Prior knowledge:
The chain is an alpha/beta fold.
Amino acid sequence: MGTAPLGIVMNGVTGRMGYRQHLLRSILAIREQGGVLLSTGERVQVRPLLVGRRAAALQEIAERHDIEDWTTDLDAALADERWRVYADFQVTSARVAAIKRAIAAGRDVYTEKPTAETHAEAVELAELAAAAGVKNGVVHDKLFLPGLLKLKRLLDSGFFGQVLSVRGEFGYWVFEGGWQPAQRPSWNYRAEDGGGIVVDMFPHWNYVLEDLFGRVESVYAKATTHITSRVDERGEPYAATADDAAYGVFELEGGVVAQINSSWAVRVDRDELVEFQVDGTHGSAVAGLFGCRIQPRNATPKPVWNPDVPDARDYRAGWLEVPDNDPVENGFKVQWEQFVRHVVEDGPHPYDFASGARGVRLAEAGLESSRTGRRVSIEAGVPAR
Ligand SMILES: NC(=O)c1ccc[n+]([C@@H]2O[C@H](COP(=O)([O-])OP(=O)(O)OC[C@H]3O[C@@H](n4cnc5c(N)ncnc54)[C@H](O)[C@@H]3O)[C@@H](O)[C@H]2O)c1
């Protein structure tokens, strides 16, 4: 093994995403398997440096997982050449400032989404990274959900004929925090702290739609705050100032119409927490996190609307489950492996800061649409991929 370990500064590892998905399920799983396999057949091992604000929390995680390096001093970490990659899983509002410091220090950067709170800042990050010549990547985990991988396989096989429309339902009830603790952090519900379902979910919808169906050309959205008061982690009531539901219509390149509801104030009467129905001239599919079922046109029933006669047909029974066929790995880990290859041997990684900026642009356009009541066009190539 001639390849030295890749040092990765991991900022925000005490958080939900930082700890579980990025540290446990990705970097430690990669370390456990002996590193990332390169095209040469060699492996590059990863070495994390945990960074955060609370020494005790970092030390506890480091000891629990046999990690040698942790610090509360981000600048010292960035100044140390042993750590080539900076990774950010902090609350969104803390991200831009930290990434700017990492770029200035010449580090390659990988980050959670959204890359910034505003499109202007997201584009600035993309420009700064390009000017500094540092590699940059942003999470695009939804593309790795087993259900969406099956959907991609259907699209690639031509199953749908011409895709006509996409209807997405994402959401579940997030407890208000009073009589039952909330299952998401309270900052998600405060606009002033970078919260809101539009800034949280529209960046995901952007790369999902773009990758599977076509570039988003316009959006109409109604964002609203259904639950206006919640109780935080310390049991204190607070005003929920951020949107907790968004009802969006997206027009895509090529004429596909996508409609996606995103809500933290809806009770689940679906098989999965997210489901996309795709209707095409030759067939339809309903894809969730894990499952995906299809109905080809040759097996499509002919319903007749008649309010006088109860409908005995079991419509659900007419769908076919798409098999898994191949084992699916954790998406966050697969993305990390791609990014490590991108850093070490220049492997492909199209989900860069420009892609992240397009996601932030869609969120900003969605909020603008909601504010003005107008459909907002999204200019192509801003910034160009
Ligand atoms: N890809 C996904 O599916 C997905 C899902 C949820 C969240 N996220 C994104 O991941 C990021 C983290 O979200 P989370 O749910 O893990 O949040 P979290 O609140 O659980 O964790 C946030 C982390 O940031 C740190 N932090 C909190 N306030 C800070 C501050 N003022 N300055 C610096 N650091 C601070 C915390 O200590 C913690 O380590 C967000 O940007 C969010 O948009 C992505």
